[in-house]
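Example 3.2
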Amino acid sequence: MEATDRRAAARRWAEAIPLLPAAARQRAVIAARIDELRADTLDGAPSNAAQATSKRPAPRWLAALGAVGLVLWKLKFVLVFLLSKGKLLLLGLTKWKTALSMLVFLAAYWAAFGWKFALGFVLSIYVHEMGHVAELRRRGYPASAPMFIPGLGAYVRLHRAPKDDVEDARIGLAGPWWGLGAALVCLVVYLATDGPLFAALARSGAWINLFNLIPIWQLDGGRAFRALTRRDRAIATGAALALWFFTGETMLLLVALGGTFRCFVGPFGTGDRQGLAAYLVLLVTLGALAMLPVPGIAID
């Protein structure tokens, strides 16, 4: 190999070595190769890579803390949102009917999945429903606290119908937005602790909110579709179908099937670009979270 080629090879290896962890065995091997190439070209200076390898690596907990800090920074808007709504979230729990129905719901899932997962799952659904309550209150509508039905989910009773389909879509999609926030919080805790419980909660939370986006009946997706034109419904349906094709997530296929049905069955709305954009963002983010690998460890 010519000297110029050896110098070029040494330079490329030197540019690549910072990408490897300090304690990696491959880093030491590459450092030795860099020194060999430089020695062959009479560049007798010792390699910086070899010196870096000899340094004591940073503690693993410090690297993990940095990764968690980066995730928290990227998702800070979710945490700030949930913390700012803490008072409203606690308010629903003070209603005895809501608390009692939650306990019955919790008992049903406790028997199947253990109390830890059951509690987290119930709270995820509660946050979703309180999203509807928050949006209703913001728009000046009275609304009941959530009521839970084991095996079916939960609902919020409206005391007055929304003024139009667009407003109804906003109220409907507020639930999945808050549910997405709860799932992202579980994801952050999972990344910080490697706890399989929180991975399971993030994935199941994404799954249940995707279910609510199926555009049929009184589901949140059905309410969102009422304001959409036929063309907008086709766009949302195509997006769900494309996401299903790339992910294989069955719930996305159900969303696409429901959307296909609504593309041919009216009445159609006059258009809601903001609602369509929100629906698409929810599809993508919840679809990605629904693919989160869950370590096969008991969580009860």
